[in-house]
Structure formats: C-alpha cells, structure tokens
Amino acid sequence: MPLIRPEHLVPHQNVNAVSGATTIDGASSTFAIVDGRIADRNAGHTEVSIDAAGWMVLSPLADLHAHLDKAYTWSASGSPAGSLEDAVASWRAFSPSLSYDDIKTNARRQLTAAFQSGVTAMRTHVNYHEGDDSLRGIRAVVELRAEFRNVLDLQVVAMHDHTRSAELIRSAIALGVDLLGAAPHLAPDPQLELERTLRLAEEANLGVDLHTDENLNPDSLGLLELARLTKTWPKERTRSAGHCVSLAMQDPETLALVLKEAATADVSIITNPLTNLYLQGWQHPVATPRALPPLAAILAAGVTLAAGGDNVQDPFNPLGNGDMIDVVAAMVLAGHLSPRAAWDIAAAGRSLMGLQPATGAVGDAADMILVRAASVAEAVAERAPDRVVIRAGRVISVQSRSSRAVTVTPLAQPENSV
Ligand SMILES: [Zn+2]
C-alpha cells in the first residue's frame, strides 16, 4: 500500500496510519487509527497511510471563548474603534438590525474558518439580542451546533445582561444551551448579578462561563467572589471565568490569594489575549498595559487555564479570524509563554468541555493537526500555511501555501571577495 504525503490528502479520507511525524516534543511518532481513536497498530485495513516525514503532529486547538453571533459585523456596525465601553455601545446600537439569518450566515462563516484551521472544540457565548425575538441568536447557534457536529464540538453559553428577566433566561435554557453566561462587572451591582446568575444556573443544573473582571481596576475581584460562591458546587459542574484582566493589575499578595481561591474552587480561567490587547488601555497612550492576566502565575497556582479567540471582526476587535494559532502567538509575544506552553493552553479547552483527550496517546481521540514545520515555534511563527486537520480519523480540511512570484537569481560572487 503506497504511502500518501499529507499535502495530497483530500477531505473525507479516513486515515488508518501515520508514520514519521514529529511530535511537539521533537520525537518521531508512528501510530494507527482505529474507529476514530489512536491505536498502536492498525486493524489490518490500511487504505490511507500517511508518510508524515517533515511534518509535525500537534493537538487540535480548542477555542474556549468565541462570540459566533457577533462575527463579521465590524464594518456593518460602523467600524467603531475604542474601549470595551465604546464597543458595547456600538453593539447595542447596531444589533437590533441583525436578523436570525444574518447571525446564522456569519456564525457559519466563523465555524468554517475555525474547523479548517484546526479548532475541533469551541465554546461560544451568545447574546440575547436587541429588538424583537431576543432569543433569535441563541436559537440560530444552537441549531449550528448540530449542523457542525461532525467537524467540531460546540458548547453554547447563553449570555445575559442584568436587564434580562429570569423568565427569559429560563426560555433560553429550554432551547438547549450548555452553560449560562453574564458579565457581572458591567452590571450596576456586580455582586447581585453574579449571585442571580449562579442561582439560575443551580436551578437548571447548568454550569457557568462568566465574563469576569474585564478591566484594569485592581479592585475588581469578581473572580474571587465566583470562587467563593461555587466552591461547594459538584466538581463536574463548569465554572469558568473569561478574561480576568484585573489580575494583571493586582499586588502580589492579592494575586496569590485570588488564584489560590480559584484553584481550590476549581474555577478555570479563559484568557482572550487578542481582544484584551485591543480593548483595554485606550486611556494610557504611553506605557499602555498589555491587559493579559499573568499566565505563568495562573499555571503555577494550579488553576486550569484555556484560551479563546474571542471576537472576530466585530465591534470588539476588527482583526480576529477564528484561527487559534494567532492566539498562541499572542500568548508567546504578550503573555511571555514558550511556544510549547502556549500551544498546550490553546489545546487545553477540550478537557474543560469534558471531551476525550487528543494528545496522540493510545486510546485518545484521533483529532489532530498536521503542519509542515520542524518545531512548534516555526509552526506558530509561519502560521502553518501547510495544514491538515483530522477529526476522529477523518480528513476534514487540507490547506497549502500557494503563491506565485518572480525568481530572484543569486548574484555571481565578485572576484575580489574572500
Ligand atoms: Zn467575550
């Protein structure tokens, strides 16, 4: 049976074996895939066997904080530029005109970009929309969860603000959302909004993923309150805190206390570097804060850390694109993690979603990304233009660099050079 090079794979092919791929640790890896899982040897039928010499095999990426219902609205909403408050105001003014069909079209575009880039697990927040039928976005995205199930696992977080009634939130829950969301730090009384949200989640036996402390105020301690209020929750019930930007501004003693409480209460943190580099710090024209929580300190404290791409070309970030490799790059450049550690965090969201691991170990899900690169640093630096995405052993996307350019001919060496 001839071996196929990764660049010659085509979508829908079922891969039975991969040989000679380089792992994230630099080792050579050969493995089989049986029934969508990694196996140490194949089951006898080897229709598609890959020769992956010169390619790396990397864990698939998990985008744990998306906003599918807002995607690709930056131009339509007037190309706003500015702080979180500016973005929220722009969104409020624009979103009544956003229809169910608009939301579905835009969300579908982002989901497609995501799985083609190697994101096979995603958690998205969805707003209650302004105007008639405030559940139209949640309904649209819940439907897309089923539509895309063969290429990615999607969790839907219904994200209310303090103006939404308990009755409406219960209606959203009845649509089949996975988690409740909110942004207590934006409410007039953050503590009240936090407690109300947790009560509604408990009532429905759902977990929460809350926008938390998305500001540069060191006294914003929503993460600490979330930890205190959920530490008696059953271990398997999700409590995630997105952003946690204020951790970047706290003194070392406060930071240590907050992270210790978060670790004890099993609260996970989702960092969203692209959006927070953009949204925060507009009031600081010099020595502008990076607005990323201290990633190394979070890991050292034993808090589970995952990452999200957050906004994709919407009022909150004109530049997102759904490719988590950009998020890995930001965690290296602005978060001071190694490329290896940053990749691990961008892949870690799978476990927070309760999915089977996809680390390449025998028995793991056969979800993976093949990239033509010699190291994870090179893959991130080059944004992996040659990339194959495999989900449960099936090829779901193949992309390759395609360019045409003039040829630059080396100059003849001058005779007097040494
Ligand atoms: Zn968000």
TrEMBL record:
Tell me which residues make up the Amidohydrolase domain: 80-394
- Note the InterPro entries from the entry: Amidohydro_3, Metal-dep_hydrolase_composite, Metal_Hydrolase, Metallo-hydrolase_Enzymes
Protein's name according to its UniProt entry: Cytosine deaminase
Q: Which UniProt keywords apply?
A: Hydrolase
Q: Tell me its EC number(s), please.
A: 3.5.4.1
- UniProt key word Hydrolase: yes
Q: Which EC class does it fall in?
A: hydrolase
Q: GO: which molecular function terms?
A: cytosine deaminase activity
Specify whether Hydrolase is a keyword of the entry. yes
